[in-house]
Amino acid sequence: MMLIGGASLLFVLLLLSCFASEFSTATDFVSWTRYLQDPESITSNGSVFRMGFFTPKGSKYRYVGIWYNNYPEFNPVWVANRERPIEDSLGTVMISEDGNLVIMDGKKDVVWSSNVTTSARGNKTAHLLDTGNLVLHEANTSTSDEVIWQSFEHVSDSFLPKMKLSSNARTNVSVMLTSWKSSSDPSPGPFSGGINPLNIPEAFVWNGTRPYWRSGPWNGQIFIGLASMESVYLDGFSLQNDNEGTFSLTYKYAMAYISYYLLQPNGTLLQVYSGEEENDRGLPWSSYETECDVYGKCGPYGICDPSKSPICSCPRGFKPGNLEEWSRGNWTAGCVRETPTNCGSSNSSKRDGFLRLQKMKVPAFPEWSFPLENECAKRCLSNCSCLAYAYTEGVGCMSWTGDLLDMQKFSNAGVDIHIRLPRSELGKARDLKLVLAVTLSVGVVFITLSVLLLWMRARKRRVTKLQETVTSDREESPIISSGKRIQDNLKLQDLKLLSFEELSTATDSFSSATKLGEGGFGPVYMGKLLDGQEVAIKRLSRASDQGLEEFMNEMVVISKVQHRNLVRLLGCCVEREEKILVYEFMPNKSLDEFLFDPVKKDKLDWSKRFKIIDGICRGLLYLHRDSRLRIIHRDLKASNILLDEELNPKISDFGMARIFGAKEDQANTRRVVGTYGYMAPEYAMGGLFSEKSDVFSFGVLLLEIISGRRNTSFSQEEQYCSLLGFAWTLWNEGNIMALVDPVISNNSHQIEVRRCIHVGLLCTQELGNDRPTTSTVISMLNSEITDLRIPKRPAFTERQITHDTESSEQSEGTRSINHITITTIEGR
């Protein structure tokens, strides 16, 4: 009896273990034989997302949703039965008889269905993917053309990476976000968000059918109505047109982060963001930052400026449409013209002109006219229906024939708008300016003149001498590769000037105790200003041959750019013989301090290294493509990557940088500057530099970050002349993972690490034309481009041995001992 009982128990245990094995290895799907019963759930293959039953806080109902598995504090990103909640705790998710994915309550009533026409259920499976997409497809197939239904085409309130928001004006078919009704009620609320496909595409949030917020037009890289996108590159947005009327918006993000966009019940679009560390979590972007972000806040022709009080005003030639309501703070009536336009007049002195408004968010619903800037004003003026025009690169010439709605004044970004005005209004403005100028100058001329003269003398002593010295000393301008127009726009007076006494006090008279390091420019000190702010102070060494030109470059270049992955210049000092730059302080110093230190490198796990790689590349993309100036760094290396307190990377040292003109792709110099091991071959040997030469330097740096070794760390006795040669050999042997630093050799990241090595080899190919652009590198790193080309041989992978007839010793063509920046000046 005991024997029989034991055998039965053993059989039951074996049977249960089989079922447990099945469920433990296949927990990401629902099939006709495997369903979910409340409170069960399934998890995507990589444990990124979970799908199951939940009850919102403050609610008594049950819903089926998808949420981030490791971030339970985030709301579900997708809800199935939004309109019909389950009133009991007996819900079931299963494949129905007709092959649909359905949710049933305890009464076996269907409360939600995928509702597609399909065959019988026997061969259907619903998989939860690591993207958060729930896909219903034929079992035993995984190709995209077999997909029957997917949640990414029926979105809720969350815009996830790789999801598409789309709209087609001809078919009126769209995929849009819909807000929850409230924080406790997932049913569809009044707000929706998506793409407006008419004319020039923009992202919109609607309250019912009325616009509530908009992004401004897409210029191929950013939405120009978002001021934050001008100064900080937001992750990976892409907008496509299939040429059949459908516009689709997608975005990607760095693999080391969680990031998605949430349309809140109040109509605000938020970027929900989280790194791997607890203190990385937050909401870095919101569509509602000021009242001016509400669509049409100031009515037709009204200009909203959040820095002014009241925030709404009328442009020149316009007045409030309802003065009484306007004075009460109700600006919805907007502004009306004071004088009608005079289009078509044969008298040239009475013809209309244009009022220019600078740094503006362009009005809603622009019409695209043509790509040529010089024709923009002429064509608008010749068309009496054209009320305004604007031009921006990436879009071309935009014009408006209806009321100008949702204009906003920006402080640092925006586009110039030209509004049609009668000549009489433009003339009034000039006359008024003249009267005011004369009246004011008579009253204050003596005081103003005396103060101005004193100020100019002091300023001239501190700045002009430096400019004259650089102009007379340098053989070739290190700043501007071409274009007097650019040079004229770079004003040193934009920088905050600090006194030498203040900086001396901040550094305890530049004592050795405050010294952080020294480069070709001169020593760098840590200091604390009078307001308590910690800063890094770079002092030009009087013995430096190249420091003076570097000083000018740093002041001109870095004062004109702003990005989260670029070090910020706070001010400078030009007194007597002193030339000093003041930066934000980076407590973790430079990347090489961690990367090549056998102890500190342990702090750089894979997620932090990828975060650094991605941040460097985004900073480089900003310099190359997204900033108002196109800048080639020319000295990208580990010691020029600074790390803040959270190990976020910031590109520094712009002493060697060159600014390109708008139509320049490359330039040539007789003065080759840079660092051995990081310089592209065409630059090191021919003086030719471009975006692709910076990409080469980035590729070397990427491989250093992955391997934990300097490119130039190989001795003459070793088989390989550089890290590139070592990586290339391992690549051809099919053993590329041997390159990886043991600190990050965890198998869980192997796919990402392999991809990054592949990208590094593509970046360091010998010919510049073979290397990807910086924007392509971003896409490859973040898996937007899945099929990577096979790399060709990198530069500097073979030793060049020459024999000296007077010596039996061999000398190598590859020299890579010193890691400081070099300057090579050929004879004039």
From TrEMBL:
It is a single-pass type I membrane protein. This is Receptor-like serine/threonine-protein kinase. Residues 1-20 form the signal peptide. PANTHER family: OS06G0693000 PROTEIN, RECEPTOR-LIKE SERINE/THREONINE-PROTEIN KINASE SD1-8. It comes from the Eukaryota. Its EC number is 2.7.11.1. The keyword Metal-binding does not apply. One of its GO terms (biological process) is recognition of pollen. It is found in: Cell membrane. Keywords: ATP-binding, Cell membrane, Disulfide bond, EGF-like domain, Glycoprotein, Kinase, Membrane, Nucleotide-binding, Receptor, Serine/threonine-protein kinase, Signal, Transferase, Transmembrane, Transmembrane helix.
